Please model this.
Amino acid sequence: MATTSETEAVYLQDASLRTLTTEILSHQPVSSLAENEKSMIKGPTDPDMSVVTMRQTILYPQGGGQPSDTGSLALVDQEPSFTVSTVRKSSSGRILHFGKSTTQSDQLFQKGQRVIQRVDDAKRDYHSRLHTGGHVVGLAMQLLFPELKKVKANHFPKEACMEYEGLLYSEQKPVIQAKVDELVSQDLPILISWVEDGSDLEGRGARRDGPVRVASIGGLDRNPCGGTHVPSTKQVGPITIRKISRQKGVSRVSYEVPLEM
Model:
């Protein structure tokens, strides 16, 4: 349960939700944010941009190698009046929804008002398949090359990759592709659980304190993860191993999934 200063991250419990009714906590201009929260948006910001926080959210904030969701907000029984262009999570646990009003009125949402959140379906689906695809590549690497240590994961479009300490070569690409294809075809379930003690896992996953959220492909691996996923490996679609590259003793396995299924 979130504290009074935090937003309850409903997407951690149910990534299938695409609409949610919740309560406004604040709505303010970007210029009024604390410096550490302003800095979450790189570069100059649109002067018309503002920030909404709510008691709960189903919109995923950028993090863990996954881009943020986009979406919209609407007062109950009204048309959407705010477009969410990016989402970030502050160190205090506030989830900030950056965006712009879509109406002529400059009136801000008021604390306590009930609003309906909507997630952009196509973007969420693609990001979830990219993220799950990275886990599939990671499991294939774990099964093929257990001696290699994973050092980084990136699930951004056109940048998706898994990085490992040690050297891999282009000749190993067909072997990795074959194992990835096998895991996808097996239609293995993506299992999400919470553990009280994650000391045996690399990293801390979705929270810095308290229970750790763990994603597993068919019980064959265990990875701390706060991202969104599709229900099974087959729903990722075909994963293409694009290339293998190396730099300073680290090997990068780049991959992609279809934009649409």
Q: What stands out?
A: The chain has two domains: 8-119, 124-256. Residues 121-144 form the longest helix (24 residues).
